[in-house]
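OP here, attaching both records as promised.
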Amino acid sequence: MKPILAITMGDPAGIGPEIIVRALNHCETYEQCRPIVTGDAAIMRQAVQLLGYNLHVNAVNNVADARFQYGTIDVYDLQCVDLSTFEFGKVQPQCGNAAFQYIKKAIELAMAGEVDGTVTAPLNKEALNLAGHHYDGHTEIYATFTHTKKYAMMLADENIRVIHVSTHVPLRKACDLVKKERIIEVTELIHDACLQFGIEHPRIGIAGLNPHSSENGMFGWEEAQEIIPAVEELKARGFDVDGPVPPDSIFAKAKCGKYDGCVAMYHDQGHIPLKVCAFNWNKETGKMESAKGVNITLGLPIIRVSVDHGTAFDVAGKGIASEDAMMLSIDYATRMAKYKKSN
C-alpha cells in the first residue's frame, strides 16, 4: 500500500496552505502516497479558491475517513483559526498556536501508527512564541513530543545532503560542540538516512572546522583532537568516510557526486552552500522564483521531512509561491516510509 503522509499546514498566514494545494494538484503525488493535511479545512478552501483549482476539500476527524483520491484534499480539520480576524502575511498569535496544534496532531498520528510519515509546511517562530509555545522550531517540537534526546537536522537538494554537528547555537559555542562522539553520532544518522533514500553504499564527507582543515594545526586544533579521531574510528567500523575535508571544497565535491552525504560542523557551514544551490532568486521580478531544499530530522522514531524555506509573508495570499520544495519533501518522506515498511 502507498504510505499515508500527514502534511502539516504550517502557519495559516504564510504560504503553507497554497504550496500544499499546488502539490496536491499534481496527480503524481497521489500515485506515490496517500496525503492528509492536518490543518483548518476553511483555510485550505481559501487556498484552493485563491489558486483557482477544481479541487474539493474533505474535512475529516479521523484518518479512516479520508478518501485519498486525486481531486480531493483530505484535511484533518482542527478548526484553530477565527476567519473573522485572520489575515494573510501577518504575525498573529492564533496562527502560531494553529501551526503548533497541526504539528502536535501530526506527531500524535505518526506515533500511534495511523500515518507512516509527516511532512511539515513552514511556521513562524515569532507567532509560535507569541502563542505561548516556546520552541526554536519544528525540530525541537518533534524532539519533545517523541521524547527524543539524540537527533540532528539534515538538509537535502539533489546531490547535496548535509547533516550538522550543531545548529541553533552561537558560533562561539558551536566550536566548543565539535566533539568526536557527536561527529560519529551524526555520521551514523546520515549514513542510515542515505540507505533509506536507496543509496546502497553511502560515501560520507566530513568537513573540517577551520580554514584548510587547520593546515596541520596552523589554524586550529579541533581537527587533530576531535575530527580526525572520529574519522579514524568510523573507518575502523566499516564506514566509507573521508575527512576532514576543507570546508571550502567539500560541498563543491558533493554537488558533483563525490559524496552521498556531508557532515558540517555548524549551522551556516551546511546551510549556506545548500541554499546557494537550492534557492533561485529572480533579479527581474525581485522575488524568489523557487526554493527546492528539504529539511529532514534524523534520529526520531517517526519520519519528519520539511520544506527548507520560511513562511514568506511578503508573498502569502498572492498565489505565486512555488511548490518545488513541498513536492521534494513528499518524495523524500515517501521513500523513507517505504524503506521503513520493508525493513
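Record two, same layout:
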Amino acid sequence: MKQNSVKAWVLAARPKTLTGAAVPVLIGLALAFCDMKALYGIEYFSWTTAVLCLLFAEVMQVNANFINDFFDYANGNDGADRRLGPLRACTQGWVSIDAMKRAIALTTVLACVVGLPLILFGGLEMILVGVFCVVFCFLYTTHLSYMGLGDVLVLLFFGIIPVCVTYYIQLHTLTWQVFLASVACGLVVDGLLVVNNYRDRDNDREDGKLTLVVRIGARNSRLLFLMLGVVATLMGVVFWMNGHVLAFVLPFVFLVFHFYTYLKMKRINRGRELNTCLGEAARNILIYGLCVVVGILL
C-alpha cells in the first residue's frame, strides 16, 4: 500500500467504529425531536444543531482512532508478530509517524471548530463538554485503558454524554427517561470494547494492561458481554413508559443478534478469528440504534 494514500487514511480512521459514535447522537436526536414536537412544535427543532452534534461525534471518533493508532505504536503494543486485531496504520507503515501527528492535531482542531457553534445553542457549558471529550480522548489510550477504566469511559462518552447533551442542546432540559436511555446505549456500545479486550486479554495481561476483561477472566467477560445486551434491551421499558412501545419491542431484534455473537465468542474463545465477533458487535450497535430510533419516531 502506498504510504499516506487515501486508502491508508481510510483504514486508519476505522470506519466500522463510526457507528458507535453516531448511534448515541441519533438516539438523543430522536428523543428530542419527539418531545420538541409534543411540547412546542416541530418547527422549533434545530436541524443545524443536529448536524453539528453528529459531525462532532464522528470527528472525535476518528481523532480517537488516530490517537490510539499512534500511541499504541509508540508504546510497542502493535507489533505485527503478536497483534490479533486488524492491522494498524502506523505499525504497518501505511501512514508515516509525522503525518499521523499532523492528522491528530488537525482532527482535534476540526472537532473544536465543529463543536464551537454549539455554544450558541447549548450555552457556555458546551465548552466544558468539549474540553472533557478532547482531554479524555488522549487519556484513554495513554493511561486510563491500562487501569481498566475503558468500560466506564465508554458508558460516559458513548452513552450518557452524547445522548443527554444532544437532547439538552435542543430542549435545554433533561428527563430521567433520557438519562436511562443514555445508559442503555452506553451498555450496548461497551459490548464492542468487551469483545476487543476479550480477544486481546493474553497480550494485555503480558503488557500490564489491566482491562476489565483481564481482571474478571474470560468466562465472566463472556457473561458480561451477554448481560450488557440483555440489560440494555430491558432498560428499553423506559421508552414504553414514555409512550414509545416500538422502541422497547424492536430492540429485541438486536438481542437475537447479540446472543448469536455471544455464542460465537464462546465457541472461538481465542485468536484472530474473534475479529469476526468484533465486526458483529459493531453491526449489532447499528441494529440497536436503528431499532430504537425507528421505534421512537414511529
